[in-house]
Amino acid sequence: MNLSREVLRLALPAIVANLTVPVLGLVDTTVAGHLQSSDQLAAIAAGSMMINMLPWLCGFLRMGTTGLTANAFGACDRLRCVAVIRKSLLIAFVLSALFLILQKPLRDLLLYLMNPGESVAMMAGDYFSICIAGIPGQLCMMAVTGWFIGLQNTRVPMFIAVGMNIVNIFLDIYLALGGGMGVSGIALGTAISNWAGAIASVTVMTCWIRGGKGPLPPKRRDKREERKEREQPSWNMARKDSVETVRAGEKEGWEGFFRVNGALLLRSACIMAVSFAMTSFASRMGSVTLAANAVMMQFFIFFSYFMDGFAFAGEAMAGRYYGGSDMVMLRRSVRTLLWWGAGMGALFLLVYALWSGNIAEAITDKEDVLARVADMRLWMVLLPALTVLAFVFDGIYVGITQAGAMLRATLTAALVFFVVTCHDGHVTDSFTLLWMAFDLYLLIRELYLAICFRKKIGGAGL
């Protein structure tokens, strides 16, 4: 089996889907920039950050579904594959109901933490209140996306994501500009497109389950075998044992589901805390530093769009071989993923070393901000080299459903970040120290996961 070809088969569609996200963000910003006042543009930025916190916090829904489904796929357990998505959709429904019930206190809390101006706060609050209507669709789509990745299929999520973003772009332009709805039009377009994506996801998923051409594992027994089993004299006793076994398995399945997803939820909270702290701490250093921090984060985000594709490939492949108890192929796939990760890291390091200034100029034309970014050039150039393993091993650990190790790695790295940036009880006023702590946080995550994998699974063969 050509593992490099398999990595690219899984990674490239995910990268294409990821790259539609900044295009959508650019259209949202452009549409908002053509509205009547700059406050509307600020409201889109604030409202987007507020509403995005909810799916970010629920990222476990996609990752946990991917790992558990990939394990079931590797074990050729069709029933378990279906059971995983049923559980995931049920959790998505419960979380959506909670978010909708608590939307007002959530909106007020997030506005308090962001503390925008009065007019911006009003429009951002309206944006949040409209967008949250699409949260059930978004969470549903996250669960189904994770399920398809676990089934070694990233093309279906790619087509759905691209189609959804095209619908979103069209609705943004039509409602906000053509319909004169302004900020509310952009929010409504986002909510409608999320529901459109969810409907498409569930429709395709249902076709796969009902015997389409998708890559579901084969059924354990055909109908003739089931009929023969029913005709046995001991059928009633066997049926009783079977029901008890199913119930025990279902209970164990829920325990494993909550164990994995609970750890992933806490890990997401740690990542959000560091991300929020990066913006909050930079804002204390002045508007120029805050703007420079936003520009520098774009370098990290752009790199992540590519590396997330290889992380998805790691989730699918590692989960498949781990679920099938094929440790030889698991180690081989990990080595292949690490080589591809090293290649991508080297490529981006070269691009950032040669053209970081040009990229920054394409993002902003403010001279004072560009000068601040130029002073931090070293940390931008080092980003790919210091973070590439974090992406690869995150994907591998999701696949082998070792969420506890991921939580411990992220929690340890986050604690180091806050110790460095908040020494002596005061938040640092050094932009260099802030970014040094951020890079250290990413480096600790990847080293922790790499060492744990080598000790527990990799062995000398890795």
Largest sheet: none
**What is the string of helix and strand elements?**
HHHHHHHHHHHHHHHHH
Based on CA atoms alone, the radius of gyration comes out at 23 Å
Secondary structure class reads mainly alpha
Overall geometry comes to: globular
Average pLDDT metric: 80
Write a concise keyword list for the protein shown above.
85% helix, globular, single chain, 462 residues, mainly alpha
Can you characterise this structure?
The structure is a single chain. This protein is an all-alpha fold. It contains 17 helices and no strands. Helix 3 runs parallel beside helix 7 and helix 4 runs antiparallel to helix 7. It is globular and about 55 Å long. About 7% of the residues have low confidence.
List the helices and strands and how they pair.
Blueprint (H helix, E strand, L loop, with lengths): L2 H31 L4 H20 L2 H15 L3 H24 L1 H12 L3 H14 L3 H16 L4 H24 L4 H27 L13 H8 L4 H49 L3 H37 L3 H37 L3 H9 L1 H23 L3 H19 L9 H28 L4
Structure, briefly:
With about 450 residues, the chain is mainly alpha-helical.
